[in-house]
Structures are given as structure tokens and as C-alpha cells.
Amino acid sequence: MKDVATAAGVALKTVSRVVNEEPGVTPATARRVLAAIERLGYRRNESARLLRRGRTATIGLVIEDVGDPFYSGMGRAVEQVALAHGSLMFSGSSGEDPRRERDLVLAFCARRVDGLVIVPAGPDHGYLRPELDAGVAAVFADRPGGLDADTVLCANSAGAYAGVAHLLRRGHRRVAFLGDDPAIFTAAERLAGYRRALADAGLGADPSLVAMGPPERAGAALSAMLAGGDPPTAVFTGNSRITVAVLRAGHRPPLVAFDDFELADLLVPGVTVVAQDPMGLGRTAAELLFERIAGGRGPARRIELPTRLVPRGSGELPPAPGTAGPGHR
Amino acid sequence: MKDVATAAGVALKTVSRVVNEEPGVTPATARRVLAAIERLGYRRNESARLLRRGRTATIGLVIEDVGDPFYSGMGRAVEQVALAHGSLMFSGSSGEDPRRERDLVLAFCARRVDGLVIVPAGPDHGYLRPELDAGVAAVFADRPGGLDADTVLCANSAGAYAGVAHLLRRGHRRVAFLGDDPAIFTAAERLAGYRRALADAGLGADPSLVAMGPPERAGAALSAMLAGGDPPTAVFTGNSRITVAVLRAGHRPPLVAFDDFELADLLVPGVTVVAQDPMGLGRTAAELLFERIAGGRGPARRIELPTRLVPRGSGELPPAPGTAGPGHR
DNA sequence: ATGAAAGCGCTAACAT
DNA sequence: ATGTTAGCGCTTTCAT
Q1: Do residues A242 and A213 lie in contact, with contact meaning Cβ atoms separated by under 8 Å?
Q2: CB–CB of B91 and A93 under 8 A?
Q3: Nearest one of A236, A277, A280 to A254, comparing CA atoms
Q4: Of A147, A323, B28, B283, whose CA is between 20 and 30 Å from B192?
Q5: Per its UniProt record, what Pfam families does this chain match (chains A, B) (predicted)?
Q6: Is A271 in the same domain as A284?
Q7: Do B148 and B167 lie in a common domain?
Q8: For chain B, how many structural domains are there in total?
């Protein structure tokens, strides 16, 4: 900038004026400055500018896995909103590891990001407290972070309820639930929705029809249930990895799956799903964030995004004859 | 920092020394400083630090779509390498729009990123010239950028060759090629591989068996071929979006597809693919980048990553009887 | 072992 | 309309 000023025979500040399109510069001078800029290949150092101005026009995104379709869709939406607000986006994957999440978040904060969108990897976000107090905005997405920050979730419980109710409506009375580790917020919520649906239909909860745990064990868990004395006639899976695990194990039961996935419509039968809205999640989270960055006050908000039931065949299958006939309880 | 210095009763520089773990500080003083840091909740401003030091410890990643599984897998690998080098990563999607790509790249350069990994959206990267001359490192991934920068590609031509040869080995003599717009580098390369495989097998190139264009038209293109007088007995698809379009259109021909995709193994029959290595692409690109950032000189390198043929059933089907019997030429 | 001063590249506030 | 000075938060250089 100094060089440009010298080359154009003006003071530093004039160059600054031109670069920032501030008023108070003769067209002629401006032209001389612009010529010098062009000739010297000058580019404003945005970092220095932002250091001076106090805002960084940068947000940080921490998700479980940048490579996962659900989260990367979310990331795409966050990116769009960020760009619309003239901000760039740091992104990083926590890999579901609370320590890595913390390191990433703190690294972003050290860069003085204006705000953070976080998919919490762990339950404890105490480390964020000082940062929030220091003025960083933060929004939790997909799961609550245990702090009084804005939070955007999917309607996990209501979605599971709708999916299970869909199966019950087809005449199923014994519906299995295959979910992830109940320590995971979404897994627990979906299980609750399943239970509520059964209860509302006047059905008791049979613990032998519920298996919670790592996706890679879901196939075996279902095999065991089906081999048991009083097997399920339909299955509700709690997330995509479990759904895929069940399908890979060769099972093709009447099925409703929580979370949509690529090509679900091409399988035979097509897989009926309770679709979430990853883009909506990202967009909403980012919009809340920028409201806060713009100075929005008020208590933390908690928004639940609706799910959508997409019938494709697997969820519309009736109970296999003989497995749960009339009189069966 | 000033506040910490005051609170600890030392000079600014001493705080700096402690924070940077530089030698020349008595353990006792260090302790006093650390206590003040803790008490005041001080966090070093990394941006200011990096402004002074001249490096930003930041790289930029520009891909087609952060939400696409292939590119987001690549991004994950780039991120890992970046973190291993103590750098953070800006990421952005070009959406295949050269102007957006340019804007993103320039925005990253204005933030003085140390380097860039770019999946080129357009053929013209002249705008990058001044930035490269200014010292930014850059690596092109997945497609060449038309500049003398390091480039990492998949073996598009060789991969297509292998896939087509696989079909020919099963007795197919009329293999259709459904590819994307040949203006896209990868599409053209894969077409070339297809042609080479036919030529090496002593087969002439039948233009009526080649359809290049947007994925959403691939289904109709294949339907037309199959309804023609001398239809193909097998199909090679040039990318995943085309593969899916063909399958969605209801076709289940003997098929080898370029690029792997989630659940290819669960379809009936399983889809035989020529798998690329998105993580390898990202890792290699990032490693080359950090070599350059570290000061590596020498001419631009061009690396091709091998593909892998994954037989799953669809590519092992013989010609349907009567469509291409002996004597047919 | 510790500190004072200069400066990274820029903008804000106040001259002229 | 243009220029000067101070300072964002830090590190570097050179004292002490």
C-alpha cells in the first residue's frame, strides 16, 4: 500500500480511500492510484484490514465428518449463508471426538471467528463458556450442546413417532427398533418417539424388540430377533448407517428408516424413510448465527425442523402371513 | 496482552515469551504470568500474530460442491493433512461456476492463505498468475488447471480402458459409452480410454454407441440406443450421476460404471465399478501443497492416481442371447 | 532475565 | 480533496 502510494505520488490514506471506495477522491487521482495498483499487482491484505476493524468476517463450522453426506449437505447450506453475508468459512471435522472438537473450536476462536456452527461431539461444552463471554456467537446444530446457545434440531422424536405409526397403520403389531448408542442424543430421542407411538397405539413395549448399539452390530441383532420365538413383523431403523447395515446383512423386512439416503429409491423394494432436512438445518443454524453476529440479543432459541415421511415400498408392506395373524397378541 | 502484562507486573514482551514458550523467563515469573492469563481469560489473537509473522497457517480448498460425496471425501483428506501441518482450512464450493471459483480463490488470497487446493471449474486460470507470482502455493486436483502448477489426477483414461476391457472379456462386442459433456476434462479422458480399449480389441468405433451430454439425458439416450437396429449389449457409464440416471430410468444392462458410489453393492445386480480414490486425491494434493509451502522448488509435477476395478455382478453379465451372437459383427 | 521501541498492513480520527 | 498520526495485537530487534 505504501508502494502504491509512492508510485501514484499520493499519501497512504488516499490509496486506502480508493481501495475502499470512500468519497473524497478526485476521479483523476483515483485513476492514478488504480493504475499504480494495477501496475504493481497490489492486493489488499484482508487479514490486516480485519485486524484493524475488529471483525474477521469469518465463521467456523465444526461437524462430525466433512465427508459424511448428511453433514456435508449441512455444510453446504452454512457456506451459502456465510457467503451471502460476505463471510468466509473455516471448516473442520470432529470425528465425534470431543477433544478434537474442542481443539478445533479453540483454534477457530484464536483466529477470532465472528461465530461458530457446531455439531456437538460431546455433552460437555464448558470450554466454550469463556469464548462466548468474550463475544463469539455460537449455534449448535443437530444436537444440543448443553449451553444456553441457540440450537437447531431435527424433530427426532416426532419423526420416529410418524415412522412407527406408519407401520402400525399397515397392521404391524410387533415393530423392532434398531438404534444407535442411546448416549447419543438423537438416538435416545428417536427411541422415545418409537415408544410413544407404541404406547399411543395401546401396545406394550417389548424390550426384546429394541436393540441399541453400534451400527455394525445391527444386522446380527436383527437376525437374532427374527430367529426368536416371537419375532417382529416390521423394523424401524434409527439412522442411515444402521439401515445400511441391516440391508447389507441381507434383511429385507417391512421397514421404515430414519434419515434418507442416496439410492434408497433404487433398492427393491424402495426404502420408506423419515427424511431429515440437512440443508434446512445448516441454513437455519447459519441464519440464527448471523442474527447474533449482527447484534441480536434475547434468550437462546431452540428450533426443531420437521421431518417428512417418504413412502417408497418397504414401509407399506403388510405383516408376512402367519407371523402376526389375528388373535396374535 | 497488555492487560496481562500489567496484571502480572511485567512487560508486554515477557508475556509474549511465556505464551510462545521462549527461553529466558524465570519459572517464577512465568507462573505469575500464567496466573494472570488464567484470571483474565486471555487468548492470544492468532490473526495478529500471523500478520506479524507473515504466514497465516491457513490453506484454502475450492471444490465443486462441498456436499458431493466424492469431493467432500477429498476435502476430508485435505483437512487431515492440513491439521497435521498445523494449518486450518477455508473451504468453499464453486458449483462448477468459473466466476464463483475465481471469487473464492481471490477471497482466500486476500486473506493471504499459504496455499490452495483447487478443483478447477473452468479452463482459464489466468487470474491466478499474479497470485502465484506473489508466492501463494497452488495444487490442482481432479482436473488440470491449465497453469504450470502441481496437479493430481485420477487415471481417467486407463480406468475407462480397464472397465471397457472387462466387458469385452465377457464377450461383449457392442459396448455403449454414456459420458458427460466432453468439454469436461474427465469426460473427454474417459471417452479416450473407451476408444483405446475398443481399438486394441480390433473393434471399430461406432458413433451411434456414444452419447455425451448432461446426466439427466443419459437415460433417454440409452433407451434410444436400445430401441435402435443394432443395439449395444453392454454399457459403460462415465460418471456416477450418469450411472444413477441410467438406473433410475429403469435400465439394468450389463454395466461397468466409472466412479464408485454408496450402495452400489446393494442393487440387484451389484454394480461393477471403476473406483477412484477421492481420499488419495485429497491427501496427495495436500501433501504436494505443503511441500511447496515449505519451500519446495522444481518444476510442476503431475501425478495420476490408479483406479481399481470392483466386480459386483453387473459387469460380469454375458451378452443377452440373440443380441450379439456368433457371426454378428 | 527482562524490557523498550519499531513495525506487520491496514483503518479511524482528526488535521489541513 | 488530501495528508498525518495513532493504534488494532502481536513479534522482532536491540537494549539493559
Answers
A1: no
A2: no
A3: A236
A4: B283
A5: LacI, Peripla_BP_3
A6: no
A7: no
A8: 3
